[in-house]
Amino acid sequence: MPGENSPGQGQSSPPLLSQNIGGLRRRSRLTRLAGELEERHGPGRAAPGAPDSLIDRAARKLAASRGDLAALDFAEKKAVLELFWRPRAPWAAQPADIEAWLRWAETDWKPRIAETRVCIALLRHFDPDNPAAGLTQDWLSGRQDLLWGRFGEFARGWSLWRGAEAVSRAAEALASGDLAFLHEAAKNAQTRTILQNSGFLVAVAEAYALRETERRGQVRWDAADLLLDFFEPAGLLGASGPAAARTRAKIAFISGLIGWAAARGDAEAKTRALKRCFRIAGDPRAGLDDWRDVPEADLAQAEKWLVEETLDTSFRIVEDLRTDDASVLAARRAFWRAHLPFITRARLVGARKAQGAAAALGAPCCALKTYLSDHCGFVLELRGPDDRKVVILELNNLAQTLFWSGDDPRAPGFDNRSYDGAALRAKSDLALSHLPPVGWTDKFAALIEKQAGIARPAREEAPPANTP
Predict the structure, then answer these.
(1) Phi/psi of residue 405, nearest 5 degrees
(2) How far is CA 302 from each of CA 39, 286, 402, rounded to the nearest angstrom?
(3) How far, in Å, CA of 392 to CA of 35, rounded?
(4) How far from 41 is each of 34, 162, 190, 361, CA to CA, in Å?
(5) Which residues, at least 6 apart from 402, have a Cβ–Cβ distance to it below 8 Å?
(6) Residue 137: which of 147, 122, 148 has the closest Cα?
(7) How do the pLDDT tens digits run along the chain, 468 residues long?
(8) N or C, which terminus of the chain has less Cβ within 10 Å?
(9) What pTM, to 2 d.p., does this model score?
(10) What is the C-alpha separation between 285 and 382, in angstroms, rounded?
(11) How far apart are CA 273 and CA 279, in angstroms?
């Protein structure tokens, strides 16, 4: 006889069991509904066709069964497509596994849905070095007519299943000024979503940047901003595909843009190049993490171009804070601007009030721990003709200016996000003051010449106040 708490004849199931059964039924109905919607409207989406938990479960089952697809249910078999691009434990696909799965997809997965999902995965994870790339491209080459909807039309128009060949074709068109690839992709939300942040588009970005660089006199970078738009909001470095491919694309873009702007030599080109570089790797004054693998010469050029803006922003903030006599501030501004040809990089530093002012201007500002909340200034590196250098920290409000020779290990670095004023004062053996207001420029110039071999510039001329 059933116990008092057991579900006997005529009795309802316990609440927990009823809830589980109800949940399974709801999930079953949702699964059927999702399948019906996919058949009706197509499978075109950029996200994986299965949650990570399902993909991981499929991997564990394949590892336990030594790659036997028969050990998986239908949903898990579909999820295996994602595993081709994840060469890690507990199971990594071999070419024979990929071929076996493609045979299963051809016979057991619904036509058009299977082909479209395979093509989407190829684009999202694009990696020509992965065996899955070549095998899925071959498999798709005879099935391109089955690709779904507007995305299918776009894929056929640009032969996307051809991998590297399709990358080359799209990049060549963009570099020649033909933006049809991006305009056509943007017309359809489904297609844009599939391409957005895809490994395939990372490969196109690299190939495009290399072609622009090779064109020399014809280089215009017309497609650059539109192409980078496709990586928002994550950015190029947040896209899919192999990390090495993203790094190559970043370097190709940044090196190409900086080389182009340097060859042009005008302020507009430099500004445009820097804005695009910032979209990829951020402003180096705000952090160097994404610039570390960029060629040193390119980073140095970008840093050099940013010096004048950093100096002018510092003096603008100090002027707004009203901490210094106008004549002293004008003399300081004139003195350091005269040394612009020798300043290789600069960082804006500020205490609480100065940081707020910098934020309002949209200027990167390193935090400064100091005794006055309105302290603001800069860290500079000056390099002389014989490559000797001197590092300088200068602050407003009659603070001392600190100097370090280039080989002094105690000198402040340029990858810091914050500086401690007291610690820096303790680590500097050379400190000069702007007092008395007459004659300090001679002391500063003599020390710079001694440390870096930089003769005092002939003219020191201040720009108008509040120069942006």
Answers:
(1) -70, 155
(2) 51, 13, 25
(3) 66
(4) 10, 25, 11, 48
(5) 392, 393, 394, 424, 425, 428, 430, 431
(6) 122
(7) 334 343 344 444 445 444 554 554 555 555 555 455 444 444 544 345 578 899 999 999 999 999 999 999 999 999 999 999 987 878 999 999 999 999 999 999 999 999 999 999 999 999 999 999 999 999 999 999 999 999 999 999 999 999 999 999 999 999 999 999 999 999 999 999 999 999 999 999 999 999 999 987 778 899 999 999 999 999 999 999 999 999 999 999 999 999 999 999 999 999 999 999 999 999 999 999 999 999 999 999 999 999 999 999 999 999 999 999 999 899 999 999 999 999 999 999 999 999 999 999 999 999 999 999 999 999 999 999 999 999 999 999 988 999 999 889 999 999 999 999 999 999 999 999 998 888 999 999 999 999 999 999 876 555 544 444
(8) N
(9) 0.85
(10) 16
(11) 10
Pair 117, 44: CB distance under 8 Å: no
Question: Helix, strand, or coil here: 190?
Answer: helix
User: Concatenated DSSP letters for 275-336?
Assistant: HHHHHHH--GGG--GGGTTS-HHHHHHHHHHHHHHHHHHHHHHHHHHT-S-HHHHHHHHHHH
Residue the block writes with tokens 């479960």: 57
Helix and strand numbers, DSSP H then E, in the chain: 19, 7
Reported residue count of the chain is: 468
409's tokens: 């290990």
Q: How many Cβ atoms from other residues are within 10 Å of residue 28's Cβ? A: 10
Sign of CA dihedral 150, 156, 161, 167: negative
Identity of residue 91: W
Q: Which residue has the tokens 């020779």?
A: 405
Which residues 6+ apart lie within 8 Å of 385 measured at CB? 453, 454
Retrieve residue 80's tokens.
């295996």
Cα separation of 189 and 45, whole Å? 10
Q: How many CB atoms lie within 10 A of CB 123?
A: 24
Give me 173's structure tokens.
């068109």
